[in-house]
């Protein structure tokens, strides 16, 4: 098989750590391990160099909101244009914003196939825009449909998101390819009594774990209300992650009387996560706005007992390997009260986790790229 030359255009990249960045990196690493060339075009971020190996940075400006995203200035050097972009076999965009339209423009200019990965339900982020929410949600759905329909293929991580795009009026080819994780790395996580002690847990305490960005759409308040309803002082919530909603969550926890039962860790290095998942008595997922939720796959691989809010995409990821409940404080409180004393081995979790391997993601994406490959242009 002739190696592919792929251009990834993304609105956010390292040093930011989130699900989109992790998914893009995992796919790039998987493809490079097969001998393919992957070049990443991303905005300059505070703390990043202008050129980092196969990552090329474009100028950017800060946005007027509390977000790690930047306003990309669509400027690519002539050397990168002639030496890289013109030689690509496929353009793969990971955003319907500036970098996505850049990728689309180059694909059309040079006769290249274009793939778009639908990472985010934009309409669920309307609260970040200072306009009327319903109008913002409508504009977000219009943008998603208009952009997706210009691609040769759209990639979604779950069947629920394929159905969602069809509802929005997307008519082009849709491929379901789960975002990949390093399954072996997370499966190597071990329950660590010393780690639990460092987190402030005592003998007899039960550790709840939330991993993710602290933002309104993540619905972490649901867990706080559930914790308050249980009245169980043995339940301790460990929050691994940071974000614009942290102060609001701390205030909500204080008002609910559960702040002493919560430990906010801030951002946690990825190499610390496997033992953190494995040391928890339950991993909690209150969000219903993900397209997949990489943390669910990570928790499955680590063998964690999972309590997740009922949403089609969460069911797609978890199957019968988790406790899925209605997204209400009462339902979560009942689930917290029923956490098993010993989670034990659960073969269904390992089986589900294997479907999210980087190898599986790479196989599916490689086949998609090959199906879209066009004859080489004659110079």
Structure overview:
It is a single chain. It is globular, with a radius of gyration of 21 Å. The chain has 379 residues and is of the alpha/beta class. It has helices spanning 19-33, 78-83, 98-110, 133-148, 159-168, 183-187, 193-198, 221-230, 246-256, 273-279, 294-301, 312-318, 329-337, 347-354, 358-372, and strands at residues 5-9, 37-43, 51-52, 55-58, 60-62, 70-72, 90-93, 114-117, 153-156, 173-176, 206-211, 235-240, 262-266, 282-285, 306-309, 323-325. Helix 1 crosses helix 15, helix 8 (221-230) crosses helix 13 and helix 11 (294-301) crosses helix 14. The mean pLDDT is 93. The chain has 2 domains: 5-180 and 357-372, 3-Layer(aba) Sandwich (Rossmann fold), CATH 3.40.50.2000; 183-354, 3-Layer(aba) Sandwich (Rossmann fold), CATH 3.40.50.2000. It has an 8-stranded mixed beta sheet, sandwiched between helices. It has a 6-stranded parallel beta sheet with strand order 13-12-11-14-15-16, with helices on both faces. The longest helix is centred in the middle third of the chain and has 16 residues, at 133-148. It is built from 15 helices and 16 strands.
Count the domains: 2
Principal-axes geometry comes out as globular
Average pLDDT score: 93
Question: How is the main sheet built?
Answer: 8 strands, mixed
N/C terminus separation: 22 Å
> What's the total count of β strands?
16
The CATH superfamily of the largest domain is: Glycogen Phosphorylase B
Second-tier CATH architecture of the largest domain: 3-Layer(aba) Sandwich
Question: Helical content, roughly?
Answer: 25-40%
Low-confidence stretches: none
């Amino acid at each position: 098989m002739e190696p592919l030359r792929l251009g990834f255009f993304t609105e956010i990249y390292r040093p930011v750590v989130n699900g989109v960045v992790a998914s893009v990196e995992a796919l790039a690493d998987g493809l490079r391990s097969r001998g393919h060339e992957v070049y990443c075009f991303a905005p300059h971020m505070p703390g990043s160099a202008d050129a980092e190996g196969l990552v090329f940075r474009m100028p950017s400006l800060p946005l007027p909101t509390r977000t790690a995203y930047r306003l990309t200035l669509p400027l690519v050097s002539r050397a990168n244009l002639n030496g890289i972009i013109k030689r690509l076999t496929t353009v793969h965009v990971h955003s319907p914003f500036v970098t996505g339209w850049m990728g689309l423009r180059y694909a059309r200019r040079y006769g290249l196939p274009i793939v778009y990965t639908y990472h985010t339900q934009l309409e669920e982020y309307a609260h970040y825009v200072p306009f009327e929410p319903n109008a913002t949600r409508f504009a977000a759905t219009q943008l998603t449909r208009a952009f997706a329909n210009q691609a040769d293929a759209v990639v979604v991580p779950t069947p629920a998101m394929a159905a969602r795009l069809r509802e929005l009026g997307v008519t082009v080819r849709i491929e379901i390819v789960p975002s990949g994780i390093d399954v072996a790395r997370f499966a190597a996580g071990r329950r660590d009594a010393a780690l639990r002690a460092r987190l402030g847990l005592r003998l007899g305490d039960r550790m709840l774990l939330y991993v993710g960005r602290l933002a309104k759409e993540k619905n972490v308040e649901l867990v706080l209300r559930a914790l308050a309803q249980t009245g169980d002082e043995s339940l301790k919530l460990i929050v691994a992650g940071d974000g614009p909603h942290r102060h609001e969550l701390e205030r909500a926890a204080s008002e609910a009387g559960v702040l002493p039962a919560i430990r906010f860790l801030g951002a946690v290095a990825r190499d610390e996560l496997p033992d953190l998942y494995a040391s928890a008595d339950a991993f909690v997922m209150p969000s219903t706005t993900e397209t997949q939720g990489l943390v669910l796959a990570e928790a499955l691989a680590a063998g964690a007992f999972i309590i997740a809010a009922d949403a089609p995409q969460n069911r797609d990821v978890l199957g019968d390997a988790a406790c899925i409940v209605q997204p209400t404080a009462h339902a979560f409180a009942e689930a917290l009260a029923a956490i098993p004393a010993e989670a034990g081995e659960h073969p269904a979790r390992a089986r589900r986790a294997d479907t999210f391997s980087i190898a599986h993601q790479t196989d599916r994406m490689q086949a998609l790229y090959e199906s879209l490959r066009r004859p080489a242009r004659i110079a």
